[in-house]
Amino acid sequence: MLLALTWAIKIDLPSLYYIPFCIVPIIIRILFDTRLALYLHLLVILIAGFFVPNSFEFVFFQTTAGMVAIYSIRNLVKREQLLLSALFILSAYFICYVGVALLREGTFDEIEWINFAPFVVSVLLSLIAYPVIYAFERVFGITSDVALIEVTNTNNKLLRELAFKAPGTFQHSLQVANLAEAAIFKIGGNALLVRAGALYHDIGKIENPQYFIENNTGVSPHDKLPYEQSAQIIIKHVHKGIEIARKHQIPESVIDFIKTHHGNTRVDFFYQSFLKNSPEKFVDENIFRYPGPIPFSKETGVLMLADSVEAASRSLKNPDAQRINDLVERIIDYKLEQKQLDNCDLTLKDLETIKLIFKTMLMSIYHVRIDYPQTV
């Protein structure tokens, strides 16, 4: 914006209000946060005020319009809302222009309406923010809330394919999303990012859905395979998920959940089965171990716990409060013992909160009645 201002002064542009200064707060607000957007906008406007005529008036117009721009996109859920934001910005400019003109001229008849034209052009140019935001997301790997809302739409092509080819996995992903989102919202974190990660964490199962128990309705194909081969098929869904997600241009911040949702744990069922049935054979444990990395944020850590707890809860027979309580405690303690949460900034208090939320939601899912003490 300051370079554009320098250029405009150099070529003696008829009005400096042609420059769309509101692009700055719009882009920064969508990609980062409100506070940073306001600070940067004020900084740009105050610096520009040293170089423009009628600097007080300029700062007044641009500060007001910038604050309106930030406020108008505080709950941006669709890119189309940028059009509505442009209308609000134009309205702010109009009110300010009319107010200042009345202070100068005293009556509406004396206002020179043609001088408002540069503000209209500026607002139209501010719509350039749309492609600029998209470009920044792609070039710098930034994921805005708008992009996350788009990928969490369960009617998009990739998630519809998952629902059709692997319906069990799709339902599992929805439940994991609900558990993880509730937990991260309570302890503090990006709930929208967690939901996106949960919906796509098992997307690699599209390739061979019948090899995963939630999609299997008959004889398991693993019954005819060596344990090592079965483990590799299961592990492969992580690599395949990353490949599919990148092919469909899913943001890297969401792909991180695919990479980390199993950490570097073992596929214990096939590992223990191998040890039991072939005790005399040498076993390379790495064959049965996921590649990692382990979770490295609150969000990825919570997803790993939600994924494991939800999957394990499906094996419960006659679930009741005690069984669900024991299951959640056992799963989370096991992840701690396996050092899967070492790189997360989850505190012990966070883990207790997560446990309570998981237990409460699972009891609700399985319609578990709570035994209330009888009163005499």
Could you provide a short overview of the structure?
With 376 residues, the protein is mainly α.
Please characterize this protein's 3D structure.
The protein has 376 residues and is an all-alpha fold. Helix content is 63%, strand content 0%. It has helices at 2-10, 23-31, 34-48, 55-72, 81-105, 117-126, 129-140, 145-151, 157-165, 167-187, 191-200, 227-247, 252-260, 268-277, 298-313, 321-337, 348-365. Helix 9 (157-165) packs across helix 10 and helix 10 runs antiparallel to helix 11 (191-200).
Overall 3D geometry? elongated
Report strand %. under 5%
The biggest beta sheet reads: none
Distance between the termini: 75 Å
Structural category: mainly alpha
What level of helicity do the residues show?
Answer: 55-70%
| H-E string | HHHHHHHHHHHHHHHHH
**Count of separate DSSP helical elements:** 17
In total, how many beta strands? 0
Q: Which segments are poorly predicted (pLDDT under 50) over 5 or more consecutive residues?
A: none
Overall average residue pLDDT: 89
Radius of gyration, in Å, reads 28 Å
Which key features would you list for this structure?
376 residues, mainly alpha
